[in-house]
Amino acid sequence: MSVKDKNIVIGVCGSIAAYKIASLIRILIKEGANVQVIMTPDAKEFITPLTLATLSKNPVLSTYFDKIDGTWTNHVELGLKADLLLLAPLTANTLGKMANGICDNLLLATYLSAKCPVFFAPAMDLDMWIHPATQNNVARLISYGNILIAPGKGELASGLFGEGRLAEPEEICDKLVVHFTLDKPLKGKKALVTAGPTYEAIDPVRFIGNHSSGKMGYAIANRLQELGASVTLVSGPTQLQTPVSVHRENVTSAEEMLQMTNKYFFESDIIVMSAAVADYTPIEVATQKIKKKEQDFQIALKKTTDILASLGPLKKSNQTLVGFALETNDELDNAKGKLTRKNLDYIVLNSMQDQGAGFAVDTNKITVISKSGSLTNFDLKSKKDVANDICTIILNHQQTL
Ligand code: CTP
Predict the structure, then answer these.
(1) Can you tell me which atom of ligand 1 is nearest the CA of 324?
(2) Which atom in ligand 1 lies closest to the alpha carbon of residue 305?
(3) Which of 119, 184, 232, 272 is surrounded by the fewest CB atoms within 10 Å?
């Protein structure tokens, strides 16, 4: 695979390196890509829209609407249609705006609406590049799942020598080709991941919840997507950004999570249930805020449906079903019990006794137990690396089915 027939949107910012984009567009068009250029207002000072429109064989976009004929440019559609959005050259200014969600031109609106992978190739003077503000903004973009094409070292337009030069057009093109060519071993497979906590309403303002951040499940959804699967993420309330190209369904309660999970279960090849689902929910939800009265107060609870246990018996031979177990004691025995009871292929055990494992932290330490009883212990790692380990196990399992 190459960039052939791919819809590539290139966002050009006001940097002297904008001249290099003319060559990049020529290369991409030669390789068969469809290129749509969006320029920031300042970019037009460095290279003319006519040059880029002629090379890309498409009118260049820059404003939301045409003042003369009133045509409106739909940034949401642009972002949705694109297979890839590349920002090159990306100035410190637009980089900072992207990192902070500022949206004061068409390019930034397209960036915020884009569901596709986003590559960014900064270009600026070396002191601007190494400034902590810039570096923090770069780190933020990376944390949103955007992919950095790092600037090179060399002579800069200022006459200074150092890091900050826009990567060469051939190098940028190679990165895009590699992206589209990457081995996607789960291509054609559908995955369902549950993540985050559930909130069980007590009255209109209160709920019973838990400390799950959803980070582990989001990292798994992201990795499965990178491996080529088409991923649905059923998420309880979290503060997290939806991973690139993942379809997210928001739910609040255990009951809603059950309904949404059932909707996607049968069509899914891979099901990973990492959500921390409430085991109990109030029998009655007060319609009005409960007033404080007596010294003691009790809420009557009933069991929720164990979603994973309800799905286990329905599992088909093409499906890989993975559950999680968070234990404080008798970890292995408890986890093995859940594996058998819920008819899982794998259970991922987190022990609250392990430092750095559990809720809200960015690391995790897991043991994966398979249906056949084999145990794999992993070291303490970032949740991203743990997600890679879990997904490698899933991939291997899928390849044996
Ligand atoms: N789970 C679920 N539905 C529930 C409760 C749990 O689908 N109502 C799933 C979780 O997503 C997880 C697994 O079951 O993958 C284990 O959850 P955990 O809370 O550790 O275990 P429980 O089976 O609820 O047992 P216990 O709370 O008694 O340890």
Answers:
(1) 15
(2) 8
(3) 184
Query: Is the beta carbon of 325 within 6 A of some atom in ligand 1?
Result: yes
Kind and range of the H or E element at 203? Answer: none
CB-based burial, 273-296: b 16+ in 10 Å, e otherwise: bbbbbbeebbeeeeeeeeeeeeee
Render pLDDT for 195-210 as a digit per residue (tens, 0 to 9). Answer: 999 999 999 999 999 9
Model confidence over 58-109: pLDDT tens digits? 999 998 877 777 677 777 778 888 999 999 999 999 999 999 999 999 999 9
Residue 227: how many CA atoms within 13 Å on its side-chain side?
Answer: 25
The Å distance, Cα 230 to ligand 1 centre, comes to 25
The residue to which tokens 């820059």 are assigned = 62
Residues 134-178: tens digit of each pLDDT: 999 988 888 787 888 989 888 877 777 778 899 999 999 988 987
Closest C-alpha to ligand 1, atom 16: 325
Catalytic residue annotation: 210
Detail the DSSP E strand segments found in 83-204.
84-90, 118-122, 147-148, 152-155, 161-165, 190-195, 200-201
Separation of CA 276 and ligand 1 centre (Å): 7
Dist. CA 306 → ligand 1 center (Å): 7
Domains, the chain, in order of start with CATH, read 7-181 (3.40.50.1950), 190-281+300-400 (3.40.50.10300)
How far apart, in whole angstroms, are the C-alpha atoms of residue 223 and residue 387? 7
Distance CA 81, CA 287 (A): 44
